[in-house]
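The following record pairs a protein chain with its ligand, uridine 5'-triphosphate.
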Amino acid sequence: MQIRTAVIPAAGLGTRFLPATKAVPKELLPIIDVPALQLIIDEAVGAGIDHIVIVNSRSKPSIEAYFAESPEVIAKLEQSGRTDIADRMRAIGRDVRISFAYQDEPLGLGHAVGCAREVVGDQPFAVLLPDELMGSSELLAAMCAVCVSSGGSVVGLKQVPHDDVSAYGVIAPAGAIDADGVVGVLDLVEKPAVADAPSDLIVIGRYVLTPDIFDAIADLLPGAGGELQLTDALRVQARRGPFHGVLRDVRRFDTGNPVGWLGAVVELALDHPQYGAPFRADLRRILRDE
Ligand code: UTP
């Protein structure tokens, strides 16, 4: 068995990025010259996913527009000899099937994932939050392998300084992390006080879930902030087990707020094969002039 389907919830309001997100969805904000959403899809494809389900809101039609074919633009690019960019345009959505599900109201992340139930069907699937970028597909690929071998859901983990845990969802581990970065999870605690935190391992925006999560989501009652929280449905699965977390040393960027997005763009631009060198020179000059 292989995990083939990934859900990308993209129906939120993006309030931390207003007014930019008034007209441009957060998921389409550029990371250098591609929308963040494209990098998320590339990560999923790199982990073996071939079907992406985007949970969208009817008020964000530009997300669908990104996947529409654009033969006139491509023809113009080819006529003017710009075949590189024409090829990149043609490649959008080519290696993967893209489906849409709709969330009519942003009732929370748990509810958004639940909106994908019919399209996903009765199989394990990945969930990628589009405002967290990973430097590679390695974490997701490892999580998929653990889901297949254990038969239970898996969450992505990151270790943070113990004093920082109260801003996050934290796991209660069943024991020590093994040599592959895998640990059993007994429970999850949302934003614990530092003194009560069961570990310094926080849940990040990557999940591989068995389909019984949909029943747990259907039973959800409003939780923190009045929203239907995915964490509450995960707790039901964790208590039942098997349920694991995977820790990997991958780069991770939180692009859902202006400072995190700026950091991601700068760091990735410095590594860029085409723009890296000129951008580094510009940045040096700006910092010198400060
Ligand atoms: P966030 O809470 O980070 O996104 O949810 P948001 O609500 O859009 O942003 P802020 O906090 O107001 O700035 C993580 C992901 O889950 C999606 C969001 O689109 C985002 O990509 N989401 C969240 C939904 O699809 N539906 C929801 O009801 C909530």
